[in-house]
Design goal:
By secondary structure, this protein is α/β, with parallel strands linked by helices.
Length: 184
C-alpha cells in the first residue's frame, strides 16, 4: 500500500511540474523551444547595391528595429572607415584572449560569455542611439548573434552583425590591432 502511495505522489509531482513548465512557457512567449536548439536570431539583410556615402550612414540605413541587421565585409569596411565621423561602435564578441591576439582597430571587447562582468562598462560606453557592429570569428561562430540578441533585450535597437567576421577581415587585408585597447 505504501509503494502505491509513493508512486502516485511521484506521478502527481511530475505532472504538476510539466504543467507549470508549459504554463511558464506560454506566459513568457519567448522563442526558446521545448527541446532542441534555440531558434537563431533572424537578421535583416541590406542590399549592397547602393554603395554610395548614404549607404553606410547609420541614420539613413540602420533605423532602430527589433532585429539586428546583417552586413557584408564591404559594408563593415565602409562603416569602419567612417566610424569616428558617424559614431559607429565595433564590438568583438570573442574571448579576451582572441581579442588580444588581434581585432579590428578601435573595437571594444564584450565577450558574450562574460557579459555580466562587463555590464557597467557597456552601459557607460555605448550610446543606444548609435549603430553597434558586432563580430566574432566567422559565419560559423554564434557569439555575435548571441550578443546581438542580448543587446536587443537590453533595449539597444541599432545593431548590425558582421557574420563573415574576423577571419574575412584579416584575409581581405584590412587594418588589424594587437593587444588590449583602452576604451574611451
Amino acid at each position: 500500500m505504501r509503494r502505491v502511495s509513493i508512486f502516485r505522489e511521484i506521478v502527481f509531482v511530475s505532472l504538476l511540474s510539466i504543467l507549470i513548465g508549459f504554463g511558464g512557457k506560454a506566459v513568457r512567449q519567448n522563442t526558446i523551444p521545448f527541446w532542441g536548439r534555440p531558434i537563431p536570431v533572424k537578421l535583416i539583410n541590406l542590399p549592397d547595391a547602393n554603395a554610395g556615402p548614404k549607404a553606410t550612414h547609420p541614420d539613413s540605413v540602420f533605423t532602430p528595429t527589433d532585429a539586428p541587421y546583417h552586413i557584408s565585409l564591404a559594408r563593415a569596411a565602409g562603416l569602419y572607415l567612417q566610424r569616428e565621423k558617424l559614431g559607429v561602435y565595433f564590438v568583438d564578441a570573442r574571448s579576451p584572449d582572441l581579442y588580444e591576439e588581434g581585432h579590428i582597430p578601435g573595437a571594444m571587447n564584450l565577450p558574450c560569455e562574460h557579459l555580466d562582468e562587463h555590464f557597467d562598462v557597456l552601459v557607460q560606453l555605448l550610446d543606444k542611439e548609435k549603430l553597434i557592429v558586432i563580430y566574432c570569428d566567422n559565419h560559423e561562430c554564434q557569439l555575435s548573434l548571441d550578443l546581438a540578441e542580448i543587446l536587443l533585450e537590453m533595449e539597444f535597437h541599432r545593431i548590425a552583425v558582421f557574420e563573415e567576421g574576423w577571419d574575412s577581415w584579416v584575409e581581405s587585408g584590412y587594418p588589424v590591432a594587437i593587444g588590449i585597447e583602452e576604451q574611451d
